[in-house]
Amino acid sequence: MENKSVIKREIILRSAIRVIARRGYFNTRIADIIEDAKIAHGLVYHYFKSKDEVILSIFRDAWNIFLSHTMRISRENQDPLAALEKIVEYVFRVFQRNPDLIKVLIFDVPRITDFYSTANQKLYHSFFEKIMEIIAAGQEKGLIRNTIEPVIAAYTIIGSVDSIIRQYVYNEDFKNMLTMDKAEQQIKLIILEGLKT
């Protein structure tokens, strides 16, 4: 019974991601999600109280996965610079596999007032805090310059990835300038090489 419940919830969220990515959050109705998911009308409300709860669930689920993968990458890579490189690669792979999810996370989730609640912001910033820990560990090992503030480095790394992905989502000219693999390599060269001692 529990597995069916999880599967139905996932079907709703996958449909919500597709529809919101295509139409935008404010132009999406619950009816649009229901139509895409091909489910009974009441089923959405069995799992979610509102459209806001649907999009916040997309954020929480995705962000917990990002955090889990970041922690796994950190554990598996004793070299903090290698861990940071793997995290950048991971975010780009997620975008390549599921551009709609990244589009919703970047453009639609921040438009929801409840995204800025204490609990959601704590979850959001925990991803960056883990990256700060990796940078601080690199400084302790003498691999990353001590003149760099871990908080600034963490937000710079993820901010640069975010900015480049935004261009691939909305800027056709940018897509024609260079491949995503090239952009990823450039971020690693400019940002990660700049951290080294």
Structural account:
The chain is built from ten helices and no strands. The chain has 197 residues and is mostly helical.
Unreliable residue stretches: none
SS class:
mainly alpha
Q: What series of H and E elements makes up the topology?
A: HHHHHHHHHH
Distance N to C terminus: 55 Å
Radius of gyration (CA) equals: 19 Å
Write a compact overview of the structure shown.
By secondary structure, this protein is an all-alpha fold. Helix content is 80%, strand content 0%. The protein has 10 helices and no strands.
Give structural attributes:
197 residues, mainly alpha, 80% helix
What topology does this entry show?
Elements: H1 2-23, H2 30-37, H3 41-47, H4 51-76, H5 80-97, H6 99-108, H7 118-140, H8 150-170, H9 172-177, H10 180-195
